[in-house]
Amino acid sequence: MKTVTKFADLASVPEGQQLKVLSEAVSFEIGLVNTCLDLFNGQYAFGKQFHRIGALSAAPVTAPTTDRIKAFLGQKYTTPSDTPVLSNVAAKVETFFHTNMPEIDLGWTNFFTYHDLRSSNQDSFEIVDTNAGVQFKQRAPGEVVEIRRGISESETTVKAVEFAGGVGILDNWLRFQKWWRIDEVVAEFQAQAWDKMANWHYQLFTAQGAGINVPFDTDDTKTLNNAAGSIFRAVRGRGYAIGQNAGLWIMTSPEQVGRVMKMLEARQGSLIVAYNDDKQPITANIAGVISTTYVSPADTGYYLILPNRKIQRGNWKDLSIKSNVDIYKAAEDLVGRMEFNAAVGDTAQVRRVLWQ
After folding, report:
1. What gap in Å lies between CA 153 and CA 163, rounded to an integer?
2. DSSP structural state of residue 58
3. Is 260:221 a contact under the CB 8 Å cutoff?
4. Is 186 in a helix, a strand, or coil?
5. Residue 179 bridge partners (DSSP)
6. What pLDDT, in 10s, does the model give residues 275-304?
7. pTM beyond 0.90, yes or no
8. Which H, E and C letters describe 197-256, residue by residue?
9. d(CA 281, CA 14)
């Protein structure tokens, strides 16, 4: 991950102000990914990790425009004194969005309903599974409508989880103007934080037991159709109002994404189907394919996901830092914190589709 902040500009900052300016610049730098996610309401995928298939994909396929970035920053930094130092803000943010964002593993964001809890005083949210027993029946004129009041309710509580990490920037890096060392440390600091977040969310799917497995049946396309049907039947009656045209996502390893993409070519009217009498076309609406290294290359299949609904995530605190001078080690210590959590509240929305 590249940084966009010009840490070399610290050379022109008076020595007594360098640490304060450095802390402000690092805070701005590590907030850029969340700034981009805010532009897209918490769901983003771009680059080779994301493969657009159907027309229902909610993920952007282009980075934000310059005008959109400037408009957003105009809301975020309303006065000149708020603008971060060491950075030509709009130009640098645009560069970051176009060069860095496609490299970050954010495909998981498309699977979850997003709850922005950064200004909330609640330390948790609930995924509610309510069955009110509502039934629609044919009604004769004047007939009394039956009112259901025996509501059974269960819920999954998702608590905020804090993650933290620290790094020290040595005084000698400033004294001898080793700006590249600061650049390297800040880039690694941010990359490790987002890797942790990706791993946390992907493992909610990969850690599911064998109960979500769909066995191989004849060929890849028939097995995919079986898996889609399994999801639609399992969620019927759960209040999702899901039909067969609902957009499904595929999550797979980089090693298997080629096989998945080849399989998805087998649609009605394609040559693959036309010249193979026993090959059935794919009938499911695949919104997109996410490939990630958090799916093992040894995994026995890929994951078919009905997104949102009871698959939810919350964000209580963006990655942010606090700094402190360590006089014993001649360093500026930076401690980063972030708070988030997620849950798959209904495993009926997920299927592991097995290869032969």
Report:
1. 32
2. -
3. no
4. helix
5. none
6. 676 678 888 999 889 999 999 999 989 999
7. no
8. HHHHHHHHHHCCCHHHEECCECEHHHHHHHHHHHHHHHHCCCCCCCCCCCEEEEEECCCC
9. 68
Dihedral, CA of residue 215, residue 217, residue 222 and residue 227, to nearest 10 = -20
Tell me how far apart the alpha carbons of residues 131 and 150 are, in angstroms, rounded to a whole number: 9
* 41 vs 198: CA distance, rounded Å: 17
What SS3 state is found at 314? strand
41: left (phi over 0), alpha (psi -120 to 50) or beta: left
Percent of the chain with pLDDT over 70: 82
pLDDT at 55 over 50: no
State the pLDDT at residue 278: 63
Mean pLDDT confidence for 108-134: 85
pLDDT at 63 over 90: no
Distance of alpha carbon 259 from alpha carbon 311, whole angstroms: 27
